[in-house]
Sequence to fold (240 residues):
Amino acid sequence: MTPRAPADGATLLSVVPAAGDRRRHPAPAHLRFFHGPMDCGKSTLALQVDHNHSRQGRRGLLLTQGDRSAGPQISSRVGLCREALEVDAGTDLRLLVRDHWAAGHRVDYLIVDEAQFLTADQVDQLAELVDESHVDVYAFGLTTDFRTRLFPGTQRLLEVADDVQRIQVEVLCWCGLPGLLNARVVDGGMVREGETVVVADTAPTPAPDADVHYQVLCRRHHVLGQLGPTAAGPGQLALC
Ligand SMILES: [Zn+2]
Fold:
């Protein structure tokens, strides 16, 4: 075998040393997207994937934004938690990874929680990291907003991800049917208009001025706007 010249169009990223052995033996990396409604166990799965990779000696970065804990970490409602890097719409994810390489840290994979909040450009940056730098990316996000429309990041991930999986942990509507859609509840009533992103928890908060929360409903009850008898109670039915 004769050494090959770098391919035309190789990006700046491709000359950055990284990813240990995977640079010498480039294996195809993948962009994987896991999505579902609130409470379906996305963050729990994200932390499990990170745990499985780190056990194999791989090094990863965990990214999130607008996490419900209001701090730079990935937390799940079943009590797991791990520190994460907070990103926002202005973060260039390629530069973020390159900065870690420059500091001498390996980055074999990225775990991206709350991926629905990514911009389309940021999803394309993730795809570039996969294709040009062989970084595996696992993105986790909500499917639709409270108006039942795809989030921008979700839409782009559905368009370009190598692998898309709807998370199979079943969240139940109050009626017992599978919950597919997120309802925004303000002052005890369901609303259908407003800003796409209002970060709140799915459990009704006791504070009288914290009057926004989300509830997962089946399609029929989302259409009807019926929150059920548990709307004012502690949380909602969920199997996660
Ligand atoms: Zn229902």
